[in-house]
Amino acid sequence: MARRSLLPAVAVAAGLALSTGTPAQTARDYISIVGSSTVYPFTTTVAERFGRGGRFRTPKVESTGTGGGIKLFCNGVGVQHPDIVNASRRIKPSEVEACTKNGVKEIVEIKIGYDGLTLSRSRKGTPMKLTRRDVFLALAKEIPDPAKPGALIPNPHRTWRDVNPTLPAERIEVLGPPPTSGTRDSFVELVMEPGCSAFEWIRKLKDSEENRFRRICHTLREDGVYVEAGENDNLIVQKLGANPNAVGIFGYSFLEENEDRLRGLALDGVVPTYESIADGSYPASRALYIYVKKAHVGVIPGLREFIAEYVSDRALGEEGYLADKGLVPPMDGERDRIRADALALANLKL
Asked: Taking the C-alpha atoms of 234, 108, 338 and 326 in order, what is their torsion angle to the nearest 10 degrees?
């Protein structure tokens, strides 16, 4: 009876501890997580395992995209704001500044492993081997004018063969993430920008006119060739099944889960595999993260314990259950450092 009478007091105390100047709120008894659709299946798997323990409720995980998730995460401290954000890229200094302005002053960064950003299509479609230069020439809003060095023209390419005579004469249709997605950020950084830099005069702009360089290399077509397919990568997978000639952009884990239906296209001569992502030979490999709001640890029930589960060997080890879901885990030495910093709640350092 005495224990039951303490519960309302604990809830009120927790609400007050997370208050941001508003009246006391009812504390949540579950962990709230938002962010990347790429990291979503990994975090969801950890959340489900965590919830089975019986000590804490299963965390609520929502797929909002990396950019949208970080914005929600940085909106403030309090039970109305998320505790954790999934991210398929590292948080930006400008986002950390936004967090700080809203009172989110201590953030724990946890690298959970690596993923390959794949360009994939149905196994019923024609196999293709692409270069990053091919992808840039297929998807950039403007491309170099072959008749006038140093000038740009609206992208005229309609088929893959227009881009490269060795590719099939099929209409270019690429289904990919929207601007709020970390996968989109990774795509322009790891694929479009290197493809764009294959042109020497554009590459030189990076030092002299960086804004122009980014505008040329990062701006995608808006004429229906590149189709923003939302934050749901499973939806892209389904659409590739309906259209064998389309190409989809998503993380390796979604390719691995659907390898009976899809094939990953070679990029600069390297096929996306677990091994090529782990050893860094696949050119579109990237790190994946979760970020934890330190002010919520010790207030939201189970948050510290959830972190411990996420970085445990049973989850993050080479034979862990996240590897079974397609995550490429950090190697032993790096994993030990990640675990030590996570358990110590070490503050983010950019």
From this structure: 0
Question: In this structure, are residues 126 and 170 in contact, taking their beta carbons and an 8 Å threshold?
Answer: yes
Structural domain for 326, as ranges: 2-114+288-343
Q: CA 98 to CA 75: how far, in whole Å? A: 8
As a whole number of angstroms, the distance between CA 225 and CA 171 comes to 8
Q: How large is the angle between the packed helices 303-310 and 332-343, nearest 10 degrees?
A: 180
Question: 336 and 268 in one domain?
Answer: no
Q: What is the pLDDT of residues 239-261, one digit of tens each?
A: 998 899 999 998 898 898 899 99
Q: 252-273 burial string, b = 16+ CB within 10 Å, else e?
A: bbbbbbbeeebbbbbbbebbbb
Express as a percent the part of the chain with pLDDT over 70: 93
Residues 122 and 235 in one domain: yes
pLDDT tens per residue, range 32-48: 999 998 899 999 999 99
